[in-house]
Amino acid sequence: MFFRDVIGQEAAKLKLIQEVHEGRIPHAQLICGPEGIGKIPLAIAYARFISCTNRGEADACGTCPSCIKFNKLVHPDVHFVFPIVKSAKGKKEVCDDYIADWRRFVLDNPYFGLSHWLNEMGAENSQAIIYAKESDEIVRKLSLKSSQGGYKFVILWLPEKMHAVCANKLLKLLEEPPEKTVFLLLSEAPDMVLGTILSRAQRYNMKKIDEQSIAQVLEKKYGIQPRESQSIAHLANGDFVKALETIHLNEEKQLFFDLFVSLMRLSYQRKIKEMKAWSEQVAAMGRERQKSFLEYCQRMVRENFIHNLHNPNLTYMTLDEQNFATRFAPFINERNVMGLMDEMSEAQKHIQQNVNAKMVFFDFSLKMIVLLKQ
Predict the structure, then answer these.
(1) Which residue from 86, 93, 90, 53 is spatially nearest to 70, judged by alpha carbons?
(2) Number of neighbours of residue 20 by Cβ within 10 angstroms
(3) Could you give the CA distance from residue 356 to residue 16 in angstroms, rounded to a whole number?
(4) Which of 68, 171, 190, 213 could form a disulfide with 8 if both were Cys (CB 3.0 to 4.6 A apart)?
(5) Are 306 and 315 in contact, with CB atoms under 8 Å apart?
(6) Residue 186 forms beta bridges with which residues?
(7) How far is residue 259 CA from its own chain's centroid?
(8) How far apart are CA 159 and CA 195, in angstroms?
């Protein structure tokens, strides 16, 4: 990945390029922003640019020995850290056990979310974290000399997923980093990152991708017609992962939509027996998918509430979601919208804490009965 491969994000690219040209590369950067805006491709392009021995004004050369290694993400001075799951197939608790899968996954499509990576690993009901043992691996790798005589990089995706022991050991490295070492921490929830780590890293908040940049990529790379590409870009709301999910059939998003519609109808009709069966169906999904489903529910409540304002430019829904909203949106109003969002957040917290999923979702569905009548 080069800077030219990063969709939009011109301000972020310019900032990073200037840092390199001016010789003021921070030893630790916390790059924050929501899913799908290009944090991983930007970090890889930045590391490539720094490592390139024949770089130009705005991008790496692509032909030097360093760039050739970056083409396959096998540069010995670039270390990736990412959430993983324990596996019964002999996998251990460090990222190197998954590194071949990770490289192939990122090279195939650098724009992805945690749910996609979980599917790639076959996570099923497991929750992905960065285990405590990973800190020892990071220390070991950074104690070695740079094979190319230049910078060493740790590209850490989702630092909010670090085990507390791992986070505390990383803190010591950030306080006294080895010479010519760069940490790139890519976070979607910086408020969940250890405060002492936040204070030792230079924070940069990436913006969402502009609609025009998304539309251009959809037209050039995927052959989408201009009018449709503009519509998809608006629906994506700055998230290229959402744009890809719109043009490709996404079974998970369809499942979430069907489950949400089913819950709202059953709750409104007070069909308790069917609601119990619904909660058992959702409980059978893995915990990461359950959390993703609750995030989807929150988005749907928010979009239906905004739908009542009758301003299409403010809503970001698919055609099926819009059709449902024409009938459902009046039931989301000032009296219940905050209550609905609070209950969904509470259910999310309980799933995170490994509370019995059947109990969580049945209780959640019963509360919907009361809230929808307000």
Answers:
(1) 53
(2) 14
(3) 46
(4) 213
(5) yes
(6) 31, 157
(7) 22
(8) 12
CB 28 within 8 A of CB 185: yes
> How far is Cα 99 from Cα 179, in angstroms, rounded to an integer?
25
**Cα–Cα dist 97/324, whole Å:** 44
Token pair 């070695």 is found at 144
Q: How far apart, in whole angstroms, are the C-alpha atoms of residue 130 and residue 153? A: 17
Residue reference for tokens 């939009």: 8
Distance CA 305, CA 260 (A): 15
Local mean pLDDT, 10-residue blocks, the chain (374 residues):
92 94 91 94 95 90 92 93 77 84 92 88 79 90 82 94 89 86 94 89 93 92 84 88 76 85 93 93 87 91 91 80 90 92 93 90 92 81
**How, if at all, do strands 181-187 and 152-157 pair?**
parallel
pTM for this prediction: 0.72
